[in-house]
Amino acid sequence: MTIRTEPGDPFGGPRILFLGDSFVQGLGDPEFRGWVGRALQAAAQDATGFNLGVRRDTSAQVRQRCWTEVEARTRPGADHRLVLSFGANDAMEEDGGPRVRPADTLANLTALLTGARARGVAALVVGPPPVVAGGAAHLARLTALAPELAGVCARFRVPFVDVTGALAADPVWTAEAEAADGAHPGAGGYARLARLVLDGGFGDWLRRPGDGAGSGNFPAHLIVHQD
Fold first, then answer.
1. 214: confidence class by pLDDT, cuts 50, 70, 90
2. Global pTM value
3. What is the pLDDT of residues 144-176, one digit of tens each?
4. C-alpha distances in Å from residue 169, one per residue of 139, 152, 161, 172, 187
5. 83/21 Cα distance (integer angstroms)
6. What angle do CA 132, 187, 20 make, to 5 degrees?
7. What string of DSSP letters covers 37-105?
8. What kind and span of H or E run contains 189?
9. Is 181 helix (H, G, I), strand (E, B) or coil?
10. Number of H helices and number of E strands within the chain?
């Protein structure tokens, strides 16, 4: 029996790379699906999804590893998609200030979206979920950061899904996070986050032609460059 990789392949949809932090990873979900697995199940069962969430990663760390991660998972002629989600760790206080200054978070997102545009990779950004244990100060930082992230996305004409406020007000997200480590919810919280991503246009974004989708336009000299 031959594995089909030509037209007619039931898994011949887009190759979607999800880069970010432990919320992308789905830490705490007893079903080990997180929001990424649920969103893929609902909207992209023909896709090849790569969950590249790393616990405690900030936007700076995502920027540093992004294109090395992407390079290892690209294929000529494929429709490559990039989903970015970070900011919760950036806004955590450490040594008297946020781990990453808001201006630097925005600069990191700008660099990543610039790199995606240069490589012909369609991007989508999911805003930072709240960390219950971070308290009101952390939530205030995220609430201020989210519209700034949306503004960067608007300049690149990249969809932005705002989840911060909705999750902060969600009793399931809050209760599950409080019952665990103070940050990460269980299956119910991740289901709520997946629904926000789906309602925010994830499926519509996948149905639109990508930036260079199917063209194989992913130049090697751009792949290896670190933005």
1. very low
2. 0.92
3. 999 999 999 999 999 999 999 999 999 999 999
4. 11, 25, 16, 9, 17
5. 12
6. 65
7. HHHHHHH-TTSEEEEEE-TT--HHHHHHHHHHHHHTT--TT--EEEEEE--TTTTSEETTEESS-HHHH
8. helix 187-199
9. coil
10. 10, 7
pLDDT in tens, 35-45: 999 999 999 99
Residue 225: pLDDT above 50? no
Two tokens at 217?
């336009």
Q: Do residues 127 and 160 make contact, with C-beta atoms less than 8 angstroms apart?
A: yes
Q: Which of 90, 61, 82 is nearest to 153 (CA)?
A: 82
Helix axes 59-71, 102-119, angle to 10 degrees: 20
Both tokens of residue 10? 């039931």
C-alpha triplet 186, 190, 195: angle, nearest 5°: 150
In the numeric block, the tokens 């700034």 are attached to 148
Torsion of CA 227, 69, 205, 22, to 10 degrees: -100
